[in-house]
């Protein structure tokens, strides 16, 4: 199984410091992050945004494969993940990842869709990695 690699560099300390994130694939290359991108909406990324992207992608892929395994051959899945960071004593803690899935799957019953999506939420590797509440809102479109 593959091992994915990313790196982070931080120059300066604390709030005035500036960081950058890179991935081995090159998708992210010296992408800026720091206090401003995490708490003040400045350009760049932050760890929670990257976790949200990973969770949305992982869950959507897990749902896609589960639907294919159940015999469905066509459809569209659109997922948004909202990762919440909250104060925790003197630090911070990720407390929630809220998934919202909109799907168009021809011929699927609502109950089958719910079961497949709920199992994907519980079992996708990123859901299993997170030590926080993971919720799922499902919308099946005609």
UniProtKB/TrEMBL annotation:
**PANTHER family from the xrefs?**
OSMOTICALLY INDUCIBLE FAMILY PROTEIN (PTHR42830:SF1)
This chain's protein is named: Osmotically inducible protein OsmC
Annotated spans, Disordered: 1-25
Instruction: Extract the Pfam families matched here.
Output: OsmC
Q: Which organism is it from?
A: Novosphingobium capsulatum
């Amino acid at each position: 199984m593959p091992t994915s690699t990313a790196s982070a560099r931080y120059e300066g300390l604390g709030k005035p410091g500036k960081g950058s994130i890179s991935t081995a694939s090159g998708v992210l290359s010296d992408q800026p992050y720091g206090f401003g991108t995490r708490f003040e909406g400045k350009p760049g990324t932050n760890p929670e945004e990257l976790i949200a992207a990973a969770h949305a992608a992982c869950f959507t892929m897990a749902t896609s494969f589960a639907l294919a395994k159940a015999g469905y051959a066509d459809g569209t899945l659109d997922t948004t993940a909202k990762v919440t960071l909250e104060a925790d004593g003197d630090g911070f803690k990720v407390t929630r990842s809220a998934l919202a899935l909109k799907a168009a799957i021809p011929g699927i019953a609502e109950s089958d869709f719910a079961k497949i999506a709920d199992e994907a939420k519980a079992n996708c590797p990123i859901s299993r990695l997170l030590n926080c509440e993971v919720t799922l809102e499902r919308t099946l479109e005609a």
